[in-house]
Design a protein that fits this description.
about 375 residues; 12 strands; binds pyridoxal-5'-phosphate
Length: about 375
C-alpha cells in the first residue's frame, strides 16, 4: 500500500496496520520513521519533496493522517496536539453570530470550549436533547450552522441517531460534527451515516495506552478539508512526530483491543445489573437503554465504557471509586488499564449548574483489558462495602 493509497478494498485490521505506512523507501524500515526535522531542504526556491516546514506538514504526521482517514472511510485526515485542539480547529469553520447546537450530554471540556471560549466572543450556542428529533426540529433556530454531538456520549452513553440528525441539519443548512472518541472508527463510522466531520480525542482508544495526548479530524469534503487544513497550519496546534508515532503504534491493535474492551465491558455490566447497590446501569447493549436501537443500527458492538448510578447517592459513588484496586481512580479513558471516576467531581466538574449537569450518584468506568474475572471481582468487593 503506497502512502496515499487508502487501501479501499482491504479490511479494517489491514488498513490499521498498513494504510499510509509503506516500508521506508530510504532504508526498508517496516515501521514509519519518526521524522524530527523541522525543515526540509529545497533544491530551488519552492522545489521540495512534499515537505517544507513541520508545522505545515511532517512525514510521520502524514502517515497518521492517512491511516485514520482510511479507518474512518474518508478522503482527508488532520492530526492535532489534543482532542480539544482538533475541536477548536473545527469550530473555527464558523463566523461569530453562527449558532452551535450541542447535544445536552457531552464531554465537559467540549462544553467549556463552546460555552466559555466561543460563547464569550459572540458565537451563540444551545444545548439540545438530540434523542428528541421532533424537539430538534421545533426548536431549530435559523442562525444554527453546526450541530455537535457525541454518540455514545460522555458520560451517560446516550446514543444519537446520526443519520436522522444529519438529515434534519442538512435540510436547514447546518454541518454535523460527531465526536467519535467513545466508539472509534472500528465500531462506528459517522461519515458513512451522513455526518460531515468526525473529531477524536486520540488520547483515548486510538492511542490506547495512556501515554500520548492527541486529536484528530476526519472529513470527506474537499472544500471543508482545505479550510480545516488552512487553519491547522495557520493556528498551528499540531502534534509532535513522536506523538504521531505513538498513535500509529496504538492503531495497529485497535480492532483487537476494541473487541476485548467490549467483551470485558459485558462481564462488568452483568455484575452491575445484578448488584443491589446499583440503581441504573448505562450501557447501550442493554435493551432498556434508550439508545439501544440507534446503537444496534449504527455500531458494530457497544464499546468499553460503562456508567452506572448508585442507590446510595453521591456518598456511595465516592465510596466505590475510592475502593477499587485494579480500576484506577483517574480521569481519561480508552486505554489498556481499567479506570474509574466520579464525573460530577472530575471530568465533568465544568458542567455543574449547566444543562449538561450529570447525576451526583454517577460512576464512569473505562473497562480495560485485564482479565475479566479480576475486574468483576474488584468491582464487586468495592460495591459490597455499601
Ligand atoms: C469524548 C471526548 N472528546 C474530546 C475530549 C478532549 O480530548 P483531549 O483530552 O485529547 O483534548 C475528551 C477528553 O476526555 C473526550 O472524552
Amino acid at each position: 500500500m503506497g502512502e496515499q493509497d487508502q487501501g479501499e478494498g482491504l479490511g479494517f485490521e489491514t488498513r490499521a496496520i498498513h494504510a499510509g505506512q509503506p516500508a521506508d523507501p530510504a532504508t526498508g524500515a517496516v515501521v514509519t520513521p519518526i521524522t524530527l526535522a523541522t525543515t526540509f531542504a529545497q533544491g530551488e526556491v519552492g522545489q521540495h519533496q512534499g515537505y517544507e516546514y513541520s508545522r505545515s506538514g511532517n512525514p510521520t504526521r502524514a502517515a497518521l493522517e492517512a491511516c485514520v482517514a482510511s479507518l474512518e472511510r474518508v478522503a482527508h485526515g488532520l492530526a492535532f496536539a489534543s482532542g480539544l485542539a482538533a475541536e477548536d480547529n473545527v469550530l473555527r469553520l464558523l463566523q461569530p453570530g453562527e449558532r452551535i447546537v450541542l447535544g445536552n450530554d457531552a464531554y465537559g471540556g467540549t462544553y467549556r470550549l463552546i460555552s466559555k471560549i466561543y460563547g464569550a466572543v459572540g458565537y451563540p450556542w444551545t444545548a439540545v436533547d438530540l434523542t428528541d428529533l421532533d424537539g430538534l426540529r421545533e426548536h431549530w433556530s435559523p442562525d444554527t450552522r453546526m450541530v455537535w454531538l457525541e454518540s455514545p456520549t460522555n458520560p451517560l452513553l446516550t446514543c444519537i441517531d446520526i443519520e436522522s440528525v444529519a438529515g434534519i441539519a442538512h435540510e436547514r443548512g447546518a454541518l454535523v460534527i460527531v465526536d467519535n472518541t467513545f466508539a472509534t472508527p472500528y465500531l462506528q463510522q459517522p461519515l458513512t451515516l451522513g455526518a460531515d466531520v468526525v473529531v477524536h480525542s486520540a488520547t483515548k482508544y486510538l492511542g490506547g495506552h495512556s501515554d500520548v495526548v492527541g486529536g484528530f479530524v476526519a472529513v470527506d469534503d474537499d472544500e471543508l478539508a482545505e479550510r480545516l487544513r488552512f487553519t491547522q497550519n495557520a493556528a498551528g496546534a499540531v502534534p509532535a512526530p513522536f506523538d504521531c508515532y505513538l498513535v500509529l503504534r496504538g492503531l495497529k491493535t485497535l480492532a483487537v483491543r476494541m473487541d476485548r474492551h467490549c467483551t470485558n465491558a459485558r462481564a462488568v455490566v452483568d455484575l452491575l445489573v445484578g448488584h443491589p447497590a446499583v440503581d441504573r446501569v448505562l450501557y447501550p447493549q442493554l435493551p432498556d437503554h434508550p439508545g439501544h436501537p440507534a446503537a444496534a443500527r449504527q455500531m458494530r458492538d457497544f464499546g468499553g465504557m460503562v456508567s452506572f448510578t448508585l442507590r446510595g447517592g453521591e456518598a456511595a459513588a465516592l465510596e466505590v471509586v475510592q475502593h477499587t484496586e485494579l480500576f484506577t481512580l483517574a480521569e481519561s479513558l480508552g486505554a489498556v488499564e481499567s479506570l474509574i471516576e466520579h464525573p460530577g467531581r472530575m471530568t465533568h466538574a465544568s458542567v455543574a449548574g449547566s444543562p449538561l449537569e450529570v447525576p451526583e450518584s454517577l460512576v464512569r468506568l473505562s473497562v480495560g483489558l485485564e482479565s475479566a474475572d479480576d475486574l468483576v471481582a474488584d468491582l464487586e468487593q468495592a460495591l459490597d462495602r455499601i
